[in-house]
Amino acid sequence: MEVFLKGVPATLTEENLKVALAPFLNRLGVADWIVDKPKRRSIAWVTFLNVEEGGAFLEEHGQPRAPPDQTRSAFTKPRLPGADSQRNARLYLLSTPIHVEKSRREVNALAINHLRLERDERQRRPDKGQRAPDISCDITEVSCGKLIFGQPNMELKYIQQTHFPSREGYVKFALQSVTVRHDGIARMDMPFHTVQELVFDHKSQSIILILEDPPKLFLQRTNHDGDGDKWERQTSCPLWPDHAQYVAHCLVYQLKLAGDYFSTARAILRQDVLTISHHNVPLTSSPIPTVEDYTTGMKVFDGKMQSFGELRNGVIPFPILFQVQTLVWNNYLHPYGGLCVLEIIENTARAEAWKNRVPPFTADAMKRVQQKIPYPTPGIEPFEVDPKTFMKNVMSAETDLRRQNPTRSGVYGPSLPVHQTWIFKAMVTPTRIFLQGPDAEARNRVLRMFPAHGDHFLRVSFCDEDGQELSFNPKISNDPIFERFREVLLKGIRIAGRHFSFLGFSHSSLRAHSTWFLAPFLASDGQRQSRDTILATLGDFSDIRVPAKCAARIGQAFTETPFAVDLFKAEISVRYIPDVKSADGKRVFSDGVGTISWNAIAEFWKVLPQRASGTTCFQIRWAGVKGMLVLDSTLRGKVICVRKESMMKFPSQDLRELGICDAGSRPFRLVLNRQVIKILEDMGTSGEWFVALQNNALDLLRAVTATATNTSTFLQYQDVGGGIGLASFIKQLEKLNIDYRRDAFLKSVVEHVVLRELRLLKYRARIPVQKGVTLFGVVDETGFLKEGEVYITYDETRGKSGERLDATLADGPVIVTRSPALHPGDIQVASMVSPPAAHPLRALRNCIAFSQKGSRDLPSQLSGGDLDGDLYNVIWDPRARPRTTFKPANYTRIVPPSLDRPITRYDIANFFIDFMRSDILGLIAIRHQILADIHVEGTNHDDCIKLAEMHSTAVDYSKTGIAVNWRDMPRAPRSRPDFLAPAPPIQVYDLGQISHILDDDDDVNDMGIIKPRYHKSEKILGQLYRGIDEKRIWSEDIHRNIPTDGPSVWEQLMGRARAEFSVCGIMTHYDLYHEQARKIRKLYEDSISDSMWHFSEDPRNCISEVEVFCGSILNRKGIQSRQQREASIRLKEETDRVMTWIAKLIHDGIERNGEAVPCQDYKSDYKSNESNGEEYDGLRLSWACLMESCAKPPDGVQRGNREAGKLEGFRVVAAACLLKELGDSTGRGVENRLRALNIRK
Q1: Residue 382: which of 144, 203, 197, 157 has the closest Cα?
Q2: What confidence score (pLDDT) does residue 66 get?
Q3: CA–centroid distance for 11 within its chain
Q4: Minimal CA–CA distance to 846: which of 641, 1069, 663, 1073?
Q5: CA distances from 391 to 360, 367, 980 (A)
Q6: Exposure string (b/e) for 1070-1100, b if CB count within 10 Å is 16 or more?
Q7: What pLDDT digit, counting tens, does each position of 803-814 carry?
Q8: What is the largest CA-CA distance in the chain?
Q9: CA-based Rg of the chain, rounded to a whole angstrom?
């Protein structure tokens, strides 16, 4: 039922109207109702789920029906509607009479659906009682500054740098954040996860908030377009005159309360969500210049850094200065502390004892130790943040690291493999710049050109305070933030005396809002290198007059190319061949793909990892060329063939080196997504197929932790722990009658991966397809395939995991698509055709070859694809076959406007900012899913077709510079389908153990942002979403309660191993091997700790060891973000490399005069079953490593670091190696040995 309201104040927002109506509806006991109020109008509707409840409201507050007026005639002037409202009103809101009557419009079915869904969810959730109200208190003053340990007694004191008398100000402690409001129009938001500690100062009756990140700052603006007031994100508090000077580094805020201080303190304590201490902190409002005062201290510090940076052949190298700058900019130390560190480093470097020697500190050691510096809070000792202690710990750490590995050299410390280099990074946020690195990452073409000058390049990311992208919201303007970002791009960043200015960016880094900066330098040939000289070396861009296109072409040189082939040295020649086109010349069938001979491929294999041997498809960058090179077995000699028209993007004379971005070394697992599922549903694919696939995936996940065999199979399928044979280790433990689930770390590793897959299944509809695969697309160079035909080839065993893929692919119809797919024609059906046995196509591996015949190439029909490295999805399951197909999109190519002059770096920098501002791909995709769900026509509805075209334009924006306006999107209903509801957050223990899934109970942020409504989707995506009860599956099937009383997993394993040694007569000689074991353990922990920090978005907080071990970053607030997904890919590669290295060290032993061979000296895919020493060396060393991993550290020795905590994974690596060595030591398997002991299998 629906009720109509008239006379509602036009300025009242929908949310405020709901608040005003709530008391009247609560009195009637009505719970299921929603409000619909158009903006700037004095009418509204209230929709009730139950007719009886709507009738009760109407009976109580509706207009009384007036008796017929017998005196009125046809000539009587009619009364205006609502003329009697004020006299007869039975409902007053905000002292305004409201006319209430039954609505005459048809009740919105989606509104009723939403109310029914809300009711069902409410009844399903346990009653936790009423949520405690927010805590609010008036404030008289707010100030910010720093906490330091000051003279004379080295006591903790608060240095107040600036204060602001707050008029009509108050502080509110809500469910997830602290908000400070000023004058009703300015606010500071401090999320609880950024509050390091809250200190109650009873003496001054104030609250001190010690923050990890600056607050988010907003100002309310009056919108003169009549769209109501709008919040604007700020770089500092605009009402606070000198706040901008301190906002970046003074992260301690003191609030002086005006109300009852003690009652407020008690309420905050009862809330029990923050770390709280009670401490009377002395306040200093006139600090000692430089020593205590931030302003003068930073000025002196900057001057000192500048003077060191300007010195040629300076006594302090740039990587060390970068670390000192990091100490101050990232708020590890006060500027004066940074000055003290500089003085110690300078004195040490100039000391006679270190003359002509490498000083006792490196960037690596400084980076490790700075992560252990705590915040100066009550309970912290002064020495813990003392610069002298810091440098002493740095030198001690470096001495220890050199003892483990004397090959450490230079200012960085560890050496790197040839395909990696050290990357310095800066993150620009709305309020500050903080630094990271140097980190080891893949090279690109530019970095390979100047291998000795990597410290003159800086990767700069633009993001929010928490490292995430700035979120788009029509209620909040980010214009001041984008202007700050633009200023940094145009003016550059000065670090340690070097001025870094904007250089360029790759396509992927543009999407990630990241770019490269450069500080000019003198190259080895004496030539000064700057942006202009480097670009001139890369190629000739002068004829390109579109900033976006020019940026994209320059960006080719910044694409990561980990491996490179010297074409001159390998004697590979280059030929140019024409493109294959349609008869009318309008369509290019070979768009972006060239060919390569067998002999040239052999040279490629030499520089690639061993796992890539046999690869026949390569994604490359060479000079001005980008695209794919695919085997043509008919070519003779060492030759590559390039298609100038489609592959050469600009002329270049830099012809020596060819970079390899990727290679088709294995097939990719195919998973569906929401977009593909919706289009297939509209094409007539049976819903039963999707449900069956999801149920199969769910059954597998439910059963993972039930048995060790299931766990082993799952880990192998997910390729987790492949470097140490984790799947096999779990299975071997089970044969020893040892339950791996009794170990918290092993249990957490498995649960982490299961939860990741479960969340992808429910919240992204990422459903695995067994009869499907994802492959690079190429063209049939031979002309064998006819129009509409494809040839698909893939390895039936997938990579190192050994996973067997479905081998039922046969000639016949297959579904082919490409992501993203929004247009209904983005999925097509082709015919798979196998060439004869001796045909050249048979030599290809892991690709799909498209026909070169017909009026239009098939790739361009699939979301506008081409063959320069695009991946294509293929499904051959007959149950998925659709009843119909739709005509593919054929968008008119838009010609971007050109400038009448050469492109400058300012043009490209402005385009970068405009891209960030206009990047609404995600918004378009979500709107498309909403409208496709509510319309009967689905993706064929005109609104969805329009959105698909807008999405295509937005995808091309990075190359055309033509943006889409979010206001042009078709309007969506007020409610969203339930499958778009966000994933609830999860509770994670300190050691990475997942506790439980929390309820999604968001804060109301009183900024006019309305929380989305959700309705029950009746389409297949809604059915799939509701088919997964995440909490139930987690609590009943995954997070199983396992008794842990008695001996641990490791005690049981060591007992069984001792028995095995005794039977075989093997002496362990632990004393001879324990020193090697200790060193290997330290190498493992150093590598894992480094990854825990390297892959964290927060420079002050690391990810967990479990996340590193699994190679997947967990988003505690919900589903993984795009940055986290991309970082997880790199993390997985690094973890596999480290695990393989450690396992090989345990197998081969420590080499090179008792020291470990560095990680980069091993190939990540190296496998060996041979020992380099005595027959049982590997067995004895693995035993020593297990013993070392289980031994308690001596008093005063800390393993891991303060933030990373105790690391648990090494014992898993050691134990896995031990069981493998036991099986290999005499040429017989573990099963045979245990059989001799009458131990069951």
Answers
A1: 157
A2: 54
A3: 40
A4: 663
A5: 10, 11, 51
A6: eeebbebbebbbbbbbbbbbbbbbbbbbbbb
A7: 788 899 999 999
A8: 119
A9: 33
Distances from the Cα of 771 to the Cα of 424, 693, 814, 839, angstroms = 44, 11, 10, 25
Whether 236 contacts 247, CB under 8 Å? yes
Q: CB neighbours of 1116 closer than 8 A, spacing ≥ 6?
A: 985, 986, 987, 988
Structure tokens at 616: 């026949």
What is the 3-state composition of the chain as percent helix, strand, coil, each rounded to the nearest 5?
40, 20, 40
C-alpha separations of 175 from 192, 202, 1116 in Å: 9, 24, 16
Provide the pairing of β-strand 252-257 with 206-211: antiparallel
Residue type, 503: L
Q: How far apart are CA 637 and CA 688, in angstroms?
A: 53
Which amino acid is it at 1013? R
DSSP calls for 886-900: -PPP-PPPPPPP--S
DSSP summary character for residue 1037 = I
Per the DSSP assignment, residues forming a β-bridge with 1077 are: none
Helix axes 318-329, 294-310, angle to 10 degrees: 170
Alpha-carbon gap, residue 589 to 823, rounded angstroms:
21
**Non-local CB neighbours of 784 within 8 Å, separated by 6+ positions:** 791, 835, 839, 841
Q: Report the distance separating Cα 316 and Cα 335, nearest Å.
A: 18
- Which residues in 129-141 are b (16+ Cβ under 10 Å) and which e? eeeeeebebebee
Percent pLDDT > 90 in the chain is 57
CA distances from 222 to 183, 783, 917, 944 (A): 15, 65, 21, 34
How much is the pLDDT for 132? 64
CB 1217 within 8 A of CB 724: yes
Give me the count of residues in the chain.
1241
The answer for residues whose C-beta is within 8 angstroms of residue 690's C-beta and 6 or more apart is 672, 677, 680, 681, 767, 1020, 1024
pLDDT digit string (tens) for 417-458?
Answer: 888 899 999 999 999 999 998 998 888 999 999 998 999 999
User: What are the b/e assignments for 1180-1207, b being 16+ CB within 10 Å?
Assistant: bbbbbbbbbbbeeeeeeeebbbebbbeb
Containing 987, the helix (H) or strand (E) segment is: strand 986-988
